[in-house]
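Q: What residues go here?
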């Protein structure tokens, strides 16, 4: 299996939808969310989980588009997680959201189950990515190893569960500090750091929610979980590049291409050297913008 790569992951908004709620799924279909998370965990009562699993593949096929990915959040107890994976892995599901991700060993076990399912369906090895939810103190202590696990393309803090374990408010400085650590861990691995400096439960006061998104973007977070369609457009706008940033990215790519044609290995722009990382960021930004413009 190839190592994880986040090159094709550009999630600014990830909207939760209970896997057994057709009405919510229909509302999600009309949203501009970059990803829809079909939830088999908290949003589904224990007695309804079997029925919810049976809907996942059909919903994923109907909700996935060229500009929108479908993910599935699985349960934490391993017996439930295995059943969830067996129901969820398919051509139309981009990633598994791992509730209460514990360690590299935990993700390795889930990856083996995913690998076996991919093989049985004729999917390419590594087709299904992982998005771990950091919801326990142990997971915070193991951020580096979790972020480094194969298949992981993004990582996100689960505020409510983590704050309950730590005995603090979800908006506390303690949870904020965890998100700063998450940004660093993601940067070291080249994956996407997700989260919100504020509460995702805030969907009525959209102006206030917008300030959360702006803080998050400034802190290095690149997208957020959403619990209501009202949050999606605000997240997309707040985590997306400005027109000024896009224009600079276009100039970087054009300058690098002109240098390549001249046989030059390096080029300057506006008094700054354009090296490989700068060019790669510019190309990724423009690629993401093309994807979101579909």
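A:
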């Amino acid at each position: 299996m190839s190592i994880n790569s986040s090159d094709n992951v550009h999630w600014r908004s990830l909207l939760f939808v209970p896997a057994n709620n057709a009405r919510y799924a229909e509302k999600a279909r009309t949203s501009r969310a970059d990803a829809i998370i079909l939830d088999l965990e908290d949003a589904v009562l224990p007695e309804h989980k079997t029925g919810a699993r049976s809907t996942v593949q059909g919903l994923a096929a109907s909700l996935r588009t060229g500009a929108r990915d479908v993910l599935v959040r699985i349960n934490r107890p391993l017996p439930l997680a295995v059943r969830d994976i067996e129901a969820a892995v398919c051509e139309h599901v981009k990633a598994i959201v791992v509730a209460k991700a514990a360690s590299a060993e935990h993700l390795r076990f889930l990856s083996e189950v995913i690998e076996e399912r991919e093989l049985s369906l004729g999917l390419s090895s590594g087709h299904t990515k992982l998005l771990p939810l950091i919801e326990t103190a142990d997971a915070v202590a193991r951020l580096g190893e979790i972020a480094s696990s194969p298949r992981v393309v993004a990582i996100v803090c689960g505020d409510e569960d983590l704050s309950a374990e730590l005995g603090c408010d979800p908006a506390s400085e303690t949870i904020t500090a965890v998100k700063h650590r998450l940004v660093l861990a993601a940067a070291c691995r080249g994956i996407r750091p997700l989260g919100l400096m504020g509460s995702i439960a805030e969907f009525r006061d959209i102006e206030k929610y917008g300030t959360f998104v702006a803080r998050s973007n400034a802190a290095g977070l690149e997208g957020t979980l959403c619990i209501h369609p009202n949050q999606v457009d605000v997240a997309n706008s707040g985590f997306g590049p400005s027109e000024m940033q896009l224009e600079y990215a276009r100039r970087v790519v054009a300058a690098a291409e002109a240098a390549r044609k001249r046989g030059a290995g390096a080029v300057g722009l506006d008094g700054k050297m354009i090296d490989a990382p700068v060019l790669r960021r510019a190309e990724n930004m423009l690629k993401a913008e093309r994807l979101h413009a579909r």
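A: Context that may help when evaluating the design: Strands lie at 13-18, 35-39, 69-74, 95-98, 129-134, 154-157, 192-194, 224-226, 267-269, 272-274. Residues 252 and 269 are 7 Å apart (CA to CA).
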